[in-house]
Design brief:
Oligomer: single chain
Number of helices: 1
Radius of gyration: 16 Å
Structural class: alpha+beta
Shape: globular
Length: 86
Amino acid sequence: MWPVFQGRVSFNKLRNLTASLLKETCHGVATEPSLQPVTSETFNLASANKQDGAHLDIVASGLGGSAFERAFFDAICSPLLTGLYL
């Protein structure tokens, strides 16, 4: 079993690699940007993060062609042999 700190290091490396690749084609790339606080919005899924101080892994502008469109990414790092991909 992998220690928790090793999994977190690989996640950070994956997130930073993805952000550096996005910087070659997009502008306004940032890692772990804060989200706007949720006020009165409702969400259908219980997995929605509604806490203050919530953040994403990566945000980039200009990915879809328009300079004003923003794309939001949530990186997930999982061991390949966990059965998740089977």
